[in-house]
Design brief:
There is one protein chain. By secondary structure, the protein is an alpha+beta fold. It has 13 helices and six strands. Strands 4-5-1-6 form a four-stranded antiparallel beta sheet. A hairpin with a 6-residue loop joins β2 (about 110) and β3 (about 120).
């Protein structure tokens, strides 16, 4: 009894294949319809290009990692490259795209299309000159019928990047979708991936983001040293003024009392001379400190190795039209076959 029951539960593929072959004309309807609809859909989606930049920044190691570093090295991770004396480690560089100020700084980048007909800011490019699928235009028309909120902030008056209007916030989100920063933990190489609808604009954005990331890293690494430089500049300037005033007082007094031999005059002249020498020593010390602080800025300025530069993409990265159409045709064939054989499948399930 059990063997007979098992046999009845098995779907006879030969019977199913014959049934599908008998109704093969159904495929002559479903496949052309699927082909036309999938082509109409995928051809309406604008093509986009991608490029990337790979950058290796110089990092200041604070420790070798010890036992933990040895364990990590056995798994292919180099902790010595990730451990630095900086508060912002390379592991946090990808998170910079979450900061509104870092993103909104991209608004005013000038972009030029491949044919040269378009020249505008990146903000205007995303706001006005993006190609869209045809079904977006009816939606945009319907949205335009409703009253809009007054825009209080904009790219022209960017007083506070952390208080954006809805329109500017949408542009910032588009930038986050188009630009991605990632870090290879094994090698410490930073990769900047960029997506755009124009190949030349794609490369421009990659180069601009690379420069901005380099500037951010450099500004952060040299911030303390640059503050010290400004501090010692002020002290040096003040010390120089004090020295020059002391020198003038001494010179004036010495010239006015050149022939006087009284000890009281000589004592005062010596006091002025000593005061001038002290002021000079202070000025000389501050100037030395200033030179050391300026050297520290140079020392803290990181060097960047360009592992891979951004190239103008030749072929679009997507959408993959042929693959999409082929996948839709395959799903149509599968769905049609299941529809024809549904009675046999349901019959097997009931037993």
């Amino acid at each position: 009894m059990e063997e007979t029951k098992k046999k009845t539960e098995v779907i006879d593929l030969r019977v199913v294949a014959k049934k599908i072959w008998k109704k093969k004309k159904l495929f002559f309807w479903t496949l052309p319809i699927a082909f036309v609809l999938s082509c109409a859909y995928i051809l309406s989606i604008p093509r986009y290009y991608t490029t990337d930049v790979k950058l290796a920044p110089e990092m200041e190691s604070s420790m070798s990692g010890g036992t933990l570093g040895s364990i990590a090295a056995s798994f292919g991770f180099d902790l010595s490259d990730m451990q630095t004396s900086d508060a912002i480690t390379p592991l946090l560089y990808p998170d910079l795209m979450e900061d509104n100020k870092f993103v909104t700084d991209m608004f005013n980048i000038t972009v030029v299309s491949k044919d040269g007909d378009l020249r505008c800011s990146y903000y205007d490019y995303l706001k006005t000159y993006q190609k869209k699928a045809w079904w977006n235009y009816p939606i945009m028309w319907l949205v335009s019928l409703f009253p809009k909120e007054t825009e209080t902030n904009g790219p022209a008056d960017k007083k506070d990047p952390y208080y954006l209007s809805k329109k500017d916030d949408r542009i910032a989100e588009k930038i986050r979708d188009n630009i991605n920063i990632s870090l290879d933990k094994k090698t410490g190489v930073i990769t900047i991936d960029v997506k755009a609808q124009d190949p030349v604009i794609c490369k421009t954005l990659a180069d601009s983001m690379m420069v901005r990331l380099q500037n951010f890293i450099t500004d952060y690494r040299t911030n303390k040293a640059r503050v010290d430089v400004e501090y010692y500049k002020k002290l040096t300037a003040d010390a120089k003024q004090e020295y020059e005033r002391a020198r003038q007082r001494y010179g004036s007094y010495a010239d006015a009392n050149m022939d006087i031999v009284l000890e009281s005059y000589r004592a005062k002249r010596d006091d002025l001379e000593n005061d001038m020498q002290l002021k000079y020593n202070t000025y000389s010390t501050m100037n030395t400190q200033l030179q050391a602080a300026m050297a520290k800025v140079q020392e803290r300025t990181p060097a960047f190795t360009l592992v891979k530069g951004a190239a103008v993409p030749i072929m679009p990265a997507g959408p993959k039209r042929m693959i999409f159409v082929a996948a839709m045709l395959f799903l149509t064939i599968l769905g049609t076959a299941l529809y024809i054989a549904k009675d046999d499948i349901l019959a097997a399930d009931r037993h």
